[in-house]
Write a structure and sequence with these properties.
By secondary structure, the protein is of the alpha+beta class. It is built from 6 helices and 16 strands. The chain has a single domain, classed as Jelly Rolls (Sandwich). Helices cover about 20% and strands about 25% of the residues. The strands form 4 sheets. Strands 1, 2, 3, 4, 7, 12, 14 and 16 form an 8-stranded antiparallel β-sheet that branches. It has a 4-stranded antiparallel β-sheet with strand order 5-13-8-11, with no helix packed on it. The two termini are about 30 Å apart.
């Protein structure tokens, strides 16, 4: 265990705005290890771990875009809990110490993903709340982490968020009327432009911690490069698990990554 980078000031910012950014949480050597693993999986040098989804971008899958390299076809790696390299992110004390400051000591990993966001595709994610993807409640005991693996800017499709919207109820979500929409990229119904929108431009290693009710999304990658990030969502082991709701969601692996397990049900 290390000293948490989230102190009283950072914690106050999180609860007031629904997020907090911790600069330089990870060093370049650590980031390079995860980037190298991504490349090895995409290039077929390492097989995808059990339960991992190597997700092709919808425009590539439908033949609207012809990628010039294997990496340009892949939108993300999802559910990497069985990959011994990538899951090190979810178990790293640097991130867990910050998570503990927000939701307490007994921590479950409930969702893992590495986003590749290639060039030449749409790749947007409409404004949404992550709470709609999880069977755990309450939202105050869930937190998402999002770490930039490379420089993240408006031009390559950084996250956007609406500060303070973590106090919102769970809003109705559905598929937006877009020609090309990646699977599972739900958006809030009737959500238009909002003057509160804030762009999160990050340097490699910078990490956002955000509330699952916070309204956020991301834009297109308008560059010739990639916009890469790695993330995990965590829940307190004291959260209530809604088994009925979980049946409507993709099967996921919920792992205890710190502390002791209270009574809860796993769906894998």
């Amino acid at each position: 265990m290390t000293a948490s980078r989230i102190g009283k000031e950072e914690l106050a910012h999180y609860w007031e705005h629904g997020y907090v950014v911790i600069p330089g949480l990870f060093d370049q050597t650590t980031l390079d290890r995860w980037l190298g693993r991504l490349a090895a999986i995409i290039d077929g040098k390492v097989p995808a771990a059990e339960h991992m989804l190597v997700m092709q971008d919808v425009m590539v899958a439908k033949g609207a875009v012809k990628p010039v390299a294997p990496a340009e076809a892949i939108a993300k790696l999802q559910d990497f809990e069985n990959d011994p390299v990538l899951f090190c992110y979810s178990k790293d004390d640097r991130v867990l110490d910050c998570v503990e400051a927000i939701i307490g000591h007994n921590i479950l990993s409930i969702h893992t993903m590495l986003i590749n966001k290639p060039p030449n595709v749409d790749g947007r994610h409409p404004l949404h709340q992550d709470i709609v993807y999880f069977p755990y409640r309450p939202g105050d005991k869930i937190v998402g982490t999002w770490t930039a693996l490379e420089r993240v800017t408006k031009e390559n499709g950084c996250l956007v968020g609406l500060p303070g919207t973590h106090r919102s109820e769970i809003l109705p979500h559905g598929n937006p009327d877009w020609e090309y929409l990646n699977f599972g990229y739900f958006g809030i119904q009737g959500m238009g432009a909002d003057e509160r929108r804030m762009h999160f431009e990050l340097d490699p290693g910078d990490t956002i911690f955000f509330h699952p009710h916070l309204i956020h999304g991301s834009g297109r990658n308008r560059t010739r490069g990639f916009r890469r990030s790695i993330l995990t969502h965590y829940a307190s082991a004291q959260c209530e698990f809604n088994e009925g709701f979980a049946k409507l969601l993709p099967q996921r692996y919920y792992a205890l990554v710190r502390g002791t397990r209270s009574e809860h049900r796993l769906n894998r």
